[in-house]
């Protein structure tokens, strides 16, 4: 029932795949939402395999950034003919430039800019973050000062720290960009607004007068992206280059405030919901690589003389890897639910906004953090080879972990999520009921919940007993943080300072709240699967997810006697039991993520499991091996040894 | 009392340094063991500053591996004139080649090889790990088959997975190396032994016939090191190239067993003790970078209209960073104690071996793990800029995290540590007393320890109450794992399989045991400091360390009622209280690690705090910025946009 078996595969992997107790096709279709999508995925991969010009001329790990960028531009210009949204260096054009035109340009502007953007007559990005300001947009320094005489804005970076910094594809690729700058008109500062700014000549691509633009240099990951910096010195743009769907500026410089202040909010939620899915995929990729490798890597005998065993047989290895698979699924369900809410919102149902709001910030923080941590566990579980770029894991980690910082730094996100929790706690203390149903936060209003946990010795527990336990923790931490805030305020500390002094407690409450959300979505999500063997696998993954999380927050559960030590033992047993059940299906479960070798980009994670010969092949072709003797050898080390030998002969 | 203030510094850092309540000179001397060492450190740095040829021609982050290697060889050949042990590409020569000759060559061999090695007439490394085998040396595949006719060994890599893989400086730099291979004589396999093997011509440096050697390609970190692979095909070496201090082979092929099987053990312990200090330094570097940056980075107003505050004012930021400073100190004390035991052992006191053994494996695992995690916290706490290579933090992390895998994979290390714990548990159950005093493990024999924790509301607690709590947890987890092992065996499961089924529980016990060790060494270590203001700072760090750890293992403490919820609250308060006390000294404490700008290699962590202008400078000089317009632009993106414009005109 595993569709990924082929002749010529490493027999150790085939052996695993033959043990499969479910249909990988059904599970794969469920992960990618339907069988149609799987079909399409396979078609695209087949097309890629057949068209060698889409392949990298050598592994990208061997390229410097110049050649990576060149290779990416080459592939994008080929792919443009076939796919709608090609990746870098067009990534930000599609995820930020076009959506901003759609959401923030008025009709006339849209008519002017949108077709050109869609046709790729220009390439753009979105420049908001500055060298000195990321999180706190209110203090951005770039200015757009209106000159009513010429009806132009004059853009300036008044200080070094005002330099735009980080926007993807800003350094080299983009020629028309969105700049967020403080609008100043008639001597008044109206705060940050968006402007459409040409920065390079459309024909020569040279940077325009007054524009200093460049690449910000190498980063932890994403080496192919030309994240850029930008300094503006008296750059003039027409009045109508200010995005005017919401706020407007008349020719005489009169400012007209936007009618709805928080209209842009929906997009932010959407971007985060998309991120959740990306994170699930990244964790799925890392799990696939590490579990396949753990099934072909043998190390150590368990019983003397019986031969070495696959490292996947070790409980410690299973405990490192299988929870990552479970989390990849948990995040997929959490993201799916968030996207569903967003679709309802787009369809006009504004009532879902509180639920969306209630979850998007905390979810972003928890999921990016656990994904990055999980990939690192996968990487380390591959031993030394996980440290090689050949494994694909270092780059996967470095890319994923960036998500902890961009689109809202995680600590800030958790504190944002905590704001809503504290607001609810305050309502509850005042005996106020929720004005609307909100499936994400309603549990916080339950004042008569059980004070003893229902987890017992059964190895087929009801998920609700665990979810209720998570709710208990989130509720307790929320009210504890709220009470501490109130106490501090009663002692005369300002609300703002009290907030800072409760930062760590608030963060913990938000994390606990997010846990309840993910667990609930996972538990609900698998109910849609009707195929019994696949359902059984998902149940095992859910069980692993839930009890692994119980152990992660054991202190919070034991704190007030809600859980007793014996129940922690039951929880451990349920983790071990889930690992035992999942073991025979482990390879087939990760196969069902349906990531192909191009996506995996890993010698360790290859579908065919032929790792060692390909590791050697990969290493041999790496750039330093163009020389047996490095050309500089005789100048330095060679001379040093020669001198020493001469010396010793004296 | 902060000696690191200079004119021209960022006033935000000077402001911090002026708040200093202790002597940074005294604290620095304590961290680096004495004032003499600090003086020497400053002399070396001064020499470096004055000798421009020792500087990198551009930041190494901008170099590809070819130029990194060239630059390293250039610097090493200059440094050789001044310092005794230069780094890469001579790193493994000094840490593995020379010590192996010292410990494993017989007198005649030593007389032959040692002077040449010390004079650098050849450059060597140590090739043990293979593509298919790392942890389990018994199954290494490389063979050294003795041919009595010619009195030579014939070395072979019988399979692809037998390729030597990973040795540092093997790929390009070394010409004489140590190869670990299975000794086969007269048809009998005597298992792994060490051989001295020429792999490159001493004059031309070309790889010798039968030798395939190369670089293994790019890795997560350590890009400058030429980690290598090696395949041997009927390479012949003289009989006397086998290291013969312990085992020997007569000319007729008769094998003589070593007298003392575990003689090499001491070196392994020593290498790990050195690693502990390296980890402390790395965490110290990351703390210095992130705390200095947090003192010059302003973001967000706490109280509206009062201006933005340093991010170091946020409790969440302090909670991320200051525990890393405390751990850097904790690891330094733990490493110091281990080195002291090792020195006693070298001095002939074999009684310390059990204590050494008892701690080195678990300590290696816990310290490398917490260091890597801590550096990542520091990196993320620097927001977007922490993600730039300009911060130095990505490379620091990628280098440190390798320590989780080399010199004994961490999971294997913890299980090794658990073996000793289980052995002791078995003795205790049989009412056997320890044969010798062992300060590291004696607490496990205490059968009548208190069952209630002494932590109370005092904000100046006695460390012993916390250390006893850690002991309680370690004891409980050790005996629980032991009892589970026994139960499984009683159910008829083999001892080996029972061990695998208890893997996760055993790992937890070993981690808890290591915690007691580190806490005890930290607590004892600061007693040597007599200067009261410095002592006060160290006490605050110890308090932070201890109660942060309490919160890390809160579940284990609450599990059996040893601790109650209220005591967790006291512990939290003690963490917050320690953060509050440490805050004014934070910059001065990291200054006292005395890492200079060359060691920090970080634009964010510069002593002078002039970050933003130097970030821009760094970015501008990065290689992609040699071109305003990339030379390939018109071929790809330029053409794509031009085509689109033509199309839209039709």
From TrEMBL, chains A, B:
Residues 265-422 form the Acyl-CoA oxidase C-alpha1 domain. GO terms for molecular function: acyl-CoA oxidase activity; ATP binding; FAD binding; fatty acid binding. Gene3D superfamilies: Acyl-CoA dehydrogenase/oxidase, N-terminal domain, Butyryl-CoA Dehydrogenase, subunit A, domain 2, Butyryl-CoA Dehydrogenase, subunit A, domain 3. Its main location: other. The active site is at residue 407. Belongs to the acyl-CoA oxidase family. This is Acyl-coenzyme A oxidase. It comes from Panagrolaimus davidi. The lineage of its organism: Eukaryota, Metazoa, Ecdysozoa, Nematoda, Chromadorea.
């Amino acid at each position: 029932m595993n569709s990924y078996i082929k002749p010529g595969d490493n027999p150790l992997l085939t052996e695993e795949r033959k043990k499969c107790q479910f249909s990988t096709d059904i599970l794969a279709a469920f992960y990618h939402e339907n069988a149609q999508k799987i079909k399409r995925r396979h078609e695209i991969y087949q097309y890629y395999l057949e068209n060698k010009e889409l392949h990298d001329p050598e592994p990208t790990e061997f390229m410097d950034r110049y050649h990576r960028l060149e290779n990416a531009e080459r592939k994008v210009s080929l792919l443009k003919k076939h796919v709608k949204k090609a990746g870098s260096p067009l990534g930000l054009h599609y995820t930020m430039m076009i959506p901003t035109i759609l959401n923030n340009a008025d009709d006339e502007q849209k008519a002017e800019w949108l077709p050109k953007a869609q046709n790729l007559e220009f390439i753009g990005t979105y420049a908001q973050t500055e060298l000195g300001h990321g999180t706190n947009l209110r203090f951005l320094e770039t200015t757009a000062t209106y000159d009513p005489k010429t009806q132009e804005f004059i853009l300036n970076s008044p200080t070094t720290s005002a330099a735009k910094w980080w926007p993807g594809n800003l350094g080299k690729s983009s020629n028309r960009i969105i700049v967020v700058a403080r609008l100043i008109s008639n001597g008044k500062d109206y705060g940050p607004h968006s402007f459409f700014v040409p920065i390079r000549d459309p024909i020569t691509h040279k940077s325009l007068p007054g524009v200093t633009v460049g690449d910000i240099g190498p980063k932890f990951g994403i080496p192919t992206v030309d994240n850029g910096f930008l300094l503006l010195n008296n750059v003039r743009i027409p009045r109508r280059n200010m995005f005017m769907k919401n706020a407007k500026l008349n020719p005489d410089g009169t400012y007209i405030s936007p009618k709805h202040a928080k209209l842009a909010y929906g997009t932010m939620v959407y971007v985060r919901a998309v991120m959740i899915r990306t994170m699930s995929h990244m964790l799925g990729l890392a799990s696939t690589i590490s579990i396949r490798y753990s099934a072909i890597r043998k190390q150590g005998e368990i019983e003397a003389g019986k031969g070495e065993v696959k490292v996947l047989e070790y409980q410690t290895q299973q405990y490192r890897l299988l929870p990552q698979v479970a989390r990849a699924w948990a995040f997929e369900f959490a993201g799916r639910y968030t996207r569903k809410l967003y679709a309802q919102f787009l369809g006009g149902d504004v009532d879902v906004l509180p639920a969306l709001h209630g979850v998007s910030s905390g979810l972003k923080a928890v999921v990016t953090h656990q994904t990055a941590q999980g990939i690192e566990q996968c990487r380390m579980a591959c031993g030394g080879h996980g440290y090689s770029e050949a494994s694909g894991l270092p780059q996967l980690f470095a890319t994923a972990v960036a998500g902890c910082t961009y689109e809202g730094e995680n600590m800030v996100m958790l504190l944002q999520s905590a704001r809503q929790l504290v607001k609810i706690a305050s309502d509850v203390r005042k005996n106020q009921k929720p004005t609307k149903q909100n499936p994400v936060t309603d549990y916080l209003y339950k004042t008569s919940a059980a004070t003893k946990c229902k987890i017992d010795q059964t190895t087929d527990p009801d998920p609700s007993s665990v979810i209720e336990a998570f709710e208990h923790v989130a509720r307790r931490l929320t009210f504890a943080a709220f009470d501490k805030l109130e106490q501090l305020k009663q002692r005369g500390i300002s609300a703002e300072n009290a907030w800072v002094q409760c930062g760590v407690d608030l963060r913990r409450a938000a994390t606990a709240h997010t846990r309840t959300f993910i667990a609930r979505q996972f538990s609900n999500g698998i109910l849609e699967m009707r195929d019994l063997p696949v359902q059984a696998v998902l149940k095992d993954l859910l069980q692993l997810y839930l009890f692994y999380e119980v152990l992660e927050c054991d202190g919070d559960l034991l704190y007030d006697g809600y859980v007793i030590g014996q129940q922690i033992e039951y929880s451990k047993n349920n983790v071990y039991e889930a690992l035992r059940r999942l073991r025979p299906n482990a390879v087939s479960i990760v196969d069902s993520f349906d990531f192909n070798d191009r996506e995996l980009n890993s010698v360790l994670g290859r579908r065919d499991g032929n790792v060692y010969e390909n590791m050697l092949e990969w290493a041999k072709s790496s750039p330093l091996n163009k020389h047996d003797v490095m050309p500089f050898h005789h100048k330095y080390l060679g001379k040093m040894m020669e001198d020493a030998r001469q010396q010793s002969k004296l």
